[in-house]
Amino acid sequence: MDAVLTLNEVTVAYHGDITILNRVNVSARKGCVTGIIGPNGAGKSTVLKTMFGFLPLRHGNIVLNGQDISRDPANRRAGQGVAYVPQSRSLFADLSVEDNLLLGCWPFRGDRARVRRQIDSVYARFPILAEKRRDPVSSMSGGQQRFVEFGRALLIEPSVILLDEPTAMLAPKISKEIYTFVRGLADEGMTVVLVDQNVRRCAEVSDYLYILELGRNKAEGDRQAFAEGSGLRDMVATWMDYKID
Ligand SMILES: Nc1ncnc2c1ncn2[C@@H]1O[C@H](COP(=O)(O)OP(=O)(O)OP(=O)(O)O)[C@@H](O)[C@H]1O
After folding, report:
1. Matching InterPro entries, A to Z (predicted)?
2. Measured distance CA(190)–CA(234) in Å, rounded
3. Which domains does the chain have, with CATH numbers?
4. pLDDT one-digit tens code per residue, 214-231
5. Ligand 1 center to residue 15 CA distance, Å?
6. Is the pLDDT of residue 189 over 50?
């Protein structure tokens, strides 16, 4: 009902006619974390890339705030209020924290006051980044670099944020901080779409979960539907067995 971003019956392919997503439906609501889980190769990252406009649709459509944006290119997403933090590192390693953040202000680079205001708001949210503002990001820990990426994504004041495996390869302590941060974004009213290999943590932080398998919707449900002893939980138990920290 209050869906902000929806994939309707979306089919995409990377090359030729090898279909990767097959009539997939995902709907992300305002102020909620929408989790997407599934085995390796299920198409979870492809869902986020599709939402961000990186892949042309073969079928279906993408609706953002009631508008069909299926044909809008990726470079319009930031202006539409959508931010994307990919799984792989996306920072300029030799540049300082501040320079990486400045690059994130590119869409509104002409408005110096806004640039300063937004960067300061990132520093207020993540004090460690203020402390290390002049350091090259390559000198920071993996977790700290993640926070630079989150900070950079927030500079455009997105209403939707797409997060791909935000805790991959990170220690449990920093992962816990990241899940708290992700939950906090939704509690602030942001629409969060979270792709995660860690089924248990994803289920804990999400309001609603989609389970994909081989590029198709397999199951879905809210947090209650995923509670201990539920059919949905039993269904993914095999995956959870080897995804527990
Ligand atoms: N750039 C690409 N070109 C061709 N095929 C790709 C590309 N990226 C992904 N694929 C294929 O698309 C399918 C889905 O990949 P995707 O990365 O979306 O899955 P995933 O569920 O996120 O997997 P993982 O959990 O391993 O990250 C896989 O078969 C993968 O090999």
Report:
1. AAA+_ATPase (IPR003593), ABC_transporter-like_ATP-bd (IPR003439), BCAA_Transport_ATP-bd_LivF (IPR052156), P-loop_NTPase (IPR027417)
2. 30
3. 1-81+159-245 (3.40.50.300), 90-157 (no CATH)
4. 999 999 998 888 777 777
5. 12
6. yes
Check pocket membership of 38 for ligand 1, CB cut-off 6 A. yes
For residue 244, what pLDDT is reported? 43
CA of residue 148 relative to chain centroid, distance:
15
CA atoms of 208 and 186, how far apart (whole Å): 12
Nearest CA, atom 2, ligand 1: 14
Overall average pLDDT of the 186-213 stretch:
94
Among the atoms of ligand 1, which is closest to the Cα of residue 46?
A: 18
Question: Does the reported pTM lie above 0.90?
Answer: yes
> Is 159 in contact with 81 (CB distance < 8 Å)?
yes
Q: DSSP for 103-134, please give it.
A: HHTGGGTT-HHHHHHHHHHHHHH-HHHHHTTT
CA of 126 to the centre of ligand 1 (A): 32
pLDDT value, residue 245: 43
Instruction: Report pLDDT for 30.
Output: 97
Q: What is the ipTM of this complex?
A: 0.95
Pocket test for ligand 1, best of 10, 17, 19, 20 (most atoms within 8 A of CB): 20
Ligand 1 centroid, distance to 1 Cα (angstroms): 30
Is 70 exceeded by the pLDDT of residue 20?
Answer: yes
**How many helices (DSSP H) and strands (DSSP E) are in the chain?**
8, 10
**Nearest residue (CA) to ligand 1, atom 29:** 41
pLDDT of the residue at 239: 63
Length of the chain: 245
